[in-house]
Amino acid sequence: MRQLAHSVKAVLQGGVKPPRKATKLAQPQALSPARVTRPPRAIWLVSLATVAGLMLVACAGLGSLLWRILPSGPTERTKKEPAESTGKKTPGGSDTGVPIDLMAIKPARIFTGHGAPVVAVAFTENDQHILSIGSDMTLIEWNRTDGKEVRKLNLAKDLLLTEPVTRLMKAGFVAISRDGSIALMTISPPDKYKEPREIELEMERQRGCWAVDLKRAKRLARVPRSLCLSPAGDRVFSRDVWEGKISLWDTHKGTEIRWTEFRRDSGDIRKAAYGPDGRHVIGVYGKGEVLLWDTTTGEKRYPENMRGMDSIAFSLDSGQVIGVSSDNTVRVLAAALGTQEVYYKGDPEIVRGNIAYFDGQRVLSWKEPPGYGSALAPKLDDIKLRLWDAKDCRRLALFVGHTAWIATVTVSRDGRHILSGGHDRMVLLWNMPKL
Residue 186: beta bridge partners? Predict the structure, then answer.
């Protein structure tokens, strides 16, 4: 007690401070295994599922790549990528043709230079030059022998349209005559646009189907929306559903030459072809009826044995018509007499598609995209030209070279060369194989 009183007195007098008790630092305590927090089991399951999904996507992408690269069958040779340089010649046979036992025929020459899908191709009158038109309305003329570019022309800017609507309009239907002299182009405004009133009126004034002289680089006349163009390019075959008539128009004057009644109850004409003789026209109605029209005499026939055709074409001499129906039935018709000569059912992988060439024995066909502007990736067999026998539906050859959907195919007048263009922005020249 005396010591305590002495200490209190010293503190009060400002003397020695009372000693403090030493505080003992707390030592970190090790966590027991039971106290460690672990993520819930659901998080582990979600992580495993995510990793498994990524692995499946990677495997699917690798499988799709291998499926496109490797050949689709034991009879086909491995596809090789086409050359990228403009007009580069590739080994594909001589000008006289290649043996037919080569199942995969490569292009003789590849032309690159378009900035948009190629929608129309043609040979010139002497077959020495090649013409191609892209969806951006750019025309390129090539030399068939050395592959060099002869001229390049923007049809919209230089011939068809005027400012300020040149950049707004787009091309629809495009066709070139068989001799490469006349081209048809359907010009229309975009689907959605918002422009001043004066520009809208100008677009409406310049829209329509226009004929263009490719030799003289001159705009000719406006004609109704056409279905096909004559081999010489001087006439177009069109139909008017509202007025109920089908007619021929002069591309140079823009006047109607001949017309006949249109069958309204048969639906619209969805496909048509002009004979190489420039005289006969054949059209397929929506309900399957086939019209064979002699444009010189005006005679019309509706062959009953050709009903239901999906694709049709004339032979080189215009003496026969070949058609393929939706049930893969192939029919050959004598155009002059209207009598049926051949009737058989073929393999859809061979006979289905647009017919580009028929010489009375061999048929050249190709598949078109399932819809305009389709984003569906084509299969390997969808981007090949097919040559098959019209008598026994036997496949003779495949033309391998395109990497995207094929949009247009034509054959030279002598039948020795094939020209094709597609969504891969390339123009391919092939040699027709021998029998």
Answer: 209
